[in-house]
Amino acid sequence: MINQRMYELGSEPSAIRELFAYGQARKAEIGEDNVFDFSIGNPSVPAPEAVKRAILDVMEQPPAQVHGYTPSQGAPSVRAAVAASLNRRFDTSYEGANIYMTCGAAASLSICFNAVGNPGDEFIVISPYFPEYKVWIENAGCNCIEVPARRDDFQMNIEAIEGAITPKTKAIVINSPNNPVGSVYPECDLIELANALRRKQDEFGTTIYIIADEPYREIVYGNVRVPFVPPIYENTLVCYSYSKSLSLPGERIGYILVPNTMPDWEHTFNAVCGAGRALGFVCAPSLLQYVIERCVDEPSDVEAYAKNREALYGGLTKLGYECVAPQGAFYLWVRALEPDAQAFAEAAKAHELLLVPSNSFGVEGWLRVSYCVAHETIVNSMPAFAELMREYQTR
Amino acid sequence: MINQRMYELGSEPSAIRELFAYGQARKAEIGEDNVFDFSIGNPSVPAPEAVKRAILDVMEQPPAQVHGYTPSQGAPSVRAAVAASLNRRFDTSYEGANIYMTCGAAASLSICFNAVGNPGDEFIVISPYFPEYKVWIENAGCNCIEVPARRDDFQMNIEAIEGAITPKTKAIVINSPNNPVGSVYPECDLIELANALRRKQDEFGTTIYIIADEPYREIVYGNVRVPFVPPIYENTLVCYSYSKSLSLPGERIGYILVPNTMPDWEHTFNAVCGAGRALGFVCAPSLLQYVIERCVDEPSDVEAYAKNREALYGGLTKLGYECVAPQGAFYLWVRALEPDAQAFAEAAKAHELLLVPSNSFGVEGWLRVSYCVAHETIVNSMPAFAELMREYQTR
User: Fold this and answer.
1) Number of helical H runs and strand E runs in chain A
2) Fewer beta carbons below 10 Å: N end or C end of chain B?
């Protein structure tokens, strides 16, 4: 009698959340230090001191102002601050009017799918991909079309993407730096993708968006640069969140950028406003909006993740595991030692290693290892990874 | 090419928001004190000191804990605190497991409509009603069925409600204390409604929910008591928000109660979780969740609203306006001096009185006057109301 689809979504938690819950229970059983939980993407680096200072500063303002409704698009001063920060970084000319503040990346994406998608439309995702994309796309009445990444380096297969585009294609979702692989898409590939999309727009007489899901934009290693997509492709919607860059995942704060370089951008912006309204988002949390206004240029603390990355990637490679060298985000993509990733994840569990099998991300044979954990967890887990390797070598 | 329905929802702001925006512009033009803005329900009473103390207290905790993801249903300690508070007040036996923390009342309602509604289902609302109900019901693919309140006292017309129930009726939304009328539904009427719903459930072999939208539960005057609905009717979902009771409308914090006295409540609770997930709500803002844990028994400051109510209701009645005596919330329902409420609201505007015509709420001939304003606004507006009355008397 209730909505069966919603019941199923609510009663079958994601494999990631399930593994995380198992880890919590297992830690209670055998001790925190004896479980190596690489399951979830909860930032281990605490929010910067600047966030706390900003909260205390905002709390000096009159409460009716701090906690009152903001316009549904966000407080004007906050939107202006976000636009100005983008302009400083990317040499753009955005205004507050291009920014729609949201309750985090999930809200940003769900709103975009509903804003541009009509029932029956298609959204292309690149597998492996964050599994909630499919939930939100289908909730907008649309279809999630999976196009596999290249199997050698897990970069975009642009030929395959172009081949998957139909007259019903409304957008392609790209996520760079990538969850779960850690790859960053280079500018040359984005230019090639843009050209392919323009060809298909001309062929079908449609508009095809790029939805750039960028919560990891600030979390990159070495000299890697994450190209900013809107100057490369005009029909780009950027979905941003401060969950990872400022370690605020519980606070639900982010934004959608509808660039003023998009043809008829006001029209699309209005659809974004309408979708936010229809889904039940009244405004992004007000106190946190004012915190963002104050922290908009705060750098992310990448050092701890860089140290973890080195220890994990170096350690596992040395043990003989095949890994994709992560350029960004805080995930390592490791090949399972047998074709069945779920069976391999179970075998790893016996060594107290909690790894997410790639089936959750729409592909076979790999695992995601989240390294947003305490550094000792990585160091202390190495003997277990070595044992696991030995077990498979002597099978 | 984008979603036309979303575009329209985004480009046609609600009449209330439009009037509010007009008021802001007009104040800039002729001075704050010369515009009597009764348009919007933004609490004028500031958040209690206890909220600030709670925020500062939470900020003493480690940031990774304060700002980290909570489970999607909410932090266990917060859910337990909300349940315990309800138990103290209403002699119930809820547990944290019955509470789903949300991003405010809009989220609570949107999630409930999606959780229990299947495409084509009907939700009954009592007109006049909060206009966003229709937006959220239709976004769930369902139909909004308006049943008029009684025309003498704007209480529920239970016979009419029963007559409107069909095999497709999934729920009736009740909002007591009521926006826009200020009425509180008495226990005897709720019992009668419950019996009518049970009769129809038996007749059609269906489950019919009451969705009790209760953001104004704490804001009542004199000896008025707001009956708690779940003990009266088993299939009740309570949608709560702290926007009005703690003056936190911008923070987006509330909850859904799925009572353990509802048959098969776990099933419905899972559908609530699924709907939250599908719409893009990951969790309610974490810092504010922990604030609620600390402020769950904080009383609402009703005194200022009571004083405003007396001045406005007393003043307008004395001038000859027909008003419904408000029992709760912070709205006065006033009969327009001509049949066309929109024309009357325009005439009022010429006296710098910003009143919301009842068409926004699905009925003709009345106006909503929000008295969550500075007391002087009410006192100073009386000559303008008197002028307006004279103007109509001498027409």
Assistant:
1) 14, 13
2) C
